[in-house]
Amino acid sequence: MSETLINQAAQVGTSRELAQEALGGGATPEIFEIVIGVARVMATLDEEAAHKYLAADFVDHEASPGVATGPEGYLSTARYMRTAFPDAAWQPEDFFTAGDKYAVRVTFRGTHQGDFMGIAPTGRRVEVQHLHFYRIADGKVAEHWGARDELTLLRQLGVFTPEYANPADAGAGVRASDLEGSRD
After folding, report:
1. How many domains does the chain have?
2. 130 in any annotated domain
3. Which of 1, 42, 69, 114 has the fewest CB atoms nearer than 10 Å to its CB?
4. Residues 114-152, buried b or exposed e (16+ Cβ, 10 A)?
5. 109: containing domain
6. What H or E segment, with its residue span, contains residue 169?
């Protein structure tokens, strides 16, 4: 079964090494199958996988109140991403499990060729880090939380052009003496 899962993981962009590490590092084959199934939803818009691996009452905590939930809600997000970035790819970089939860760090890549959150197509290629956390209940994903490097995405699309790329770069020249008197 492990070899089958490793091959299925490769079909959604997971390296053989990461799949082997996940299966050898605490992920049960059952959890890893769910991980691959959820990845197929985003990677290939697989409706069958959405209904098999996402609970009917699945909650995406990133979505605003009133936005569709369940497998159809997750599929609508995947479809939307494909309209904005037709060549979208999510490359898993790290994978962790703990109890009924798993986390995946991915690199998202794509070319902005459709409207994205009100931003007209730019034709620009983007590469952005994502963190995704999922909770499993009764053999299906029940909840999702995500965090993305949105500032980098907006910079790469050319709609946000700060002097510094991030706080670490901006803070490189700040000395402790610059803060004296500011803590009073």
Report:
1. 1
2. yes
3. 1
4. eebeeeeeeeeebebebebbbbbeeebbbbbeeeebeeb
5. 2-161
6. helix 167-171
Q: Is residue 19 part of a domain?
A: yes
Predicted local confidence at residue 144, as pLDDT:
96
Residue 17 lies in a domain: yes
pTM for the full model?
0.82
- What is d(CA 140, CA 58) in angstroms, rounded to the nearest whole number? 9
Enumerate residues 6+ apart whose C-beta is below 8 A from 108.
Answer: 88, 89, 90, 91, 126, 127, 128, 129, 130, 148
Q: What is the mean pLDDT of each run of 10 residues along the chain (184 residues)?
A: 67 68 72 86 94 96 90 95 95 88 93 97 98 96 95 94 83 80 61
CATH number of the domain that residue 43 is part of = 3.10.450.50
Q: How far apart are CA 32 and CA 22, in angstroms?
A: 8
Describe the strand order of the beta sheet including 101-111 as a list of residue ranges: 54-60, 140-148, 125-137, 101-111, 89-98
Residue 176 lies in a domain: no
